[in-house]
Amino acid sequence: MSRPRAPGTRTPVTLAVPALLAIAFLLLPLTGILARTEWGELGTHLTSPEVTVALRLSLLVSFCALGLSLVLGVPLAWLLARVSFPGKALVRSLVLLPMVLPPTVGGVALLLGFGRRGLLGPWLENDLGIVLPFHTSGAVVAATFVAMPFLVISLEGTIAGLRTSYEETAASLGASPVRVFLTVTLPLVAPGLAAGAALTWARALGEFGATITFAGNLPGTTQTLPLEVYLLLQDQPQAATSVSLLLLAVAMAVLVALRGRWTGTTAARPGNGAARPGNADDRPAEENEKPAEVTPDAPVATTAAPSAPQRQSPLRAEVSGFNDVTLDAPAGTTIAVVGPNGAGKTTLLRALLGLTPRAHARLRLGDVDVTNLPPHRRGVAWVPQDGALFPHLSALANTAYGLRTQGVRRTEARRGAQEWLDRLGVGDLARRRPSQLSGGQAQRVALARALAARPRLLLLDEPLAALDQTTRARVRRMLRAHLEGFGGVCLMVTHDPVEAISLGGRVLVLDDGRTLQDDTPGEVSRHPRSPWVARMLGRNAWTCTATSDGTLSLAAGGTLVAADPATPGTTTLAIIAPEAVSLHRERPSGSPRNNWPGTVREITAVGSRLRVVVASDQVPDLVAEITPQAAAELGLADGTPVWTSVKATEITLVTP
Ligand SMILES: Nc1ncnc2c1ncn2[C@@H]1O[C@H](COP(=O)(O)OP(=O)(O)OP(=O)(O)O)[C@@H](O)[C@H]1O
Question: Where are the compositionally biased (Low complexity) regions (predicted)?
Fold first, then answer.
């Protein structure tokens, strides 16, 4: 269906004409082949003994070259995409070189490298008995040399585009780097891998220059189809046209099957709708895995059952670098980590996982010092902000992943996983893929997956952020119940004050990577040590300086009277609970000494109460919390003039 064209989007003639010429330039030779093919003789030409032998050899050589490219090229692509090392740009240029090198020059280079008089040739021949020139293996080497770059660059792009949180989460569930690569990375990049493999095969099938230079042109041994075309062209041009048509059809079929994947137009999409593995089998890839060996340091699950007693693992951590935090927490503690954007909350979690060079954690969990252990052997499970459920595995296989990496047998791991999913209220979704789950359901599966792995330390990065208010309250209750039975320590990053207060046995406030406050929720809420925390908790917080006449001078202008004035000259934080702010239509005449005129700027509902923001030119904005009935009696609306008053005894002074 043609889309209506927006005005002003006419294609300029100066661009359209050369573009059309380019299309004609590419099309004409192909049309020539089609036009000159003797269709009646096509069958005879393609079934002649020489062509059949060359075709068979071409298939053998191209598939062997593909196999060799996969074995060598896939790890190389991973290395280029995932590992930083000196000279990486040079290695990438080296990979690309055969794509731009004249194939005959490639052949000469191969001769000088692997030929009988080349650098490696004598050793290959004398010690291993391998002679490449004039052998089919030489044709395979030549085809691999020119074709492998297609696989490497295609796959490197796909791996680089894959969110690292999948692989990092897999590691946090106990999977070794090789296991992560095989069970997470490879299935997720399968479309990119297939595209690269198809191109590599097509390129190997059409290889001519390097093959003839390096491996020669021996019928039945190195004379592949393109070489046969070259020979036929001299004696039987019609047969050459027919074979060319065959090669053209194969190349075209590969490109049509790829439909732009290689150029990135339909590249693998990470995320919930992420790259689907080529495997249409609904059986999760994880299920085909053998359980890993249980290493002495690995977090060993004694049983998959969630009701099994949890190891008691207190935490001691000293984090340096971007973060400067010391944490000591007995087993079973849940610490809510709060702080403004960029305060270093995620960096702290990543440091504890051993996943960032930006901060280093000396970490002891129970009686094990895990500081020098790689992430997959720390027993630290992580639920990143997006949950990072593996898109190619069902909810059940996702949840069983951690147990499988710990060596738990498949049936037992699946039973344990099902129990955890049931506990979190998503048991009936066990067979669904992450793309078939809502955000909230996916979060619950991600939690089940982390808890099922029975970690010593559980790290939750905004675990309830994706949930709506109702589900959030329900999951919060569930989470609290599960965290109570969790024998390790849980660190939970949150921006939600209710979550911080209700789920955290402790609240750790970070600012600029450092600990600003580390206290019980009650203490933090009564005495927040920064305006940010106070505001997060819904309190009014004004920075002020005590004056010699007993009042407080607000940094933003205005004065305040508190019952217990601070020492003159000290800077302090005046905290006023919104419930302590009264609103009046007339100037109040009673005891409060803090009365300010203002106007209502905003009214919002918070549960069964209303939060009223009052703007005043005497003090900063003040938040009051009143009942809807009181608001109705006062006739409050946006812009209504009001008086605010706060008793001096309701003002808490906190020294930051
Ligand atoms: N890979 C990185 N390289 C350099 N700086 C980084 C990197 N990751 C994070 N930062 C910076 O480190 C600081 C802390 O980031 P971090 O993600 O830990 O903050 P946060 O408290 O989790 O923030 P938010 O609440 O926005 O998620 C920020 O200033 C951020 O810009």
Answer: 266-278, 293-309
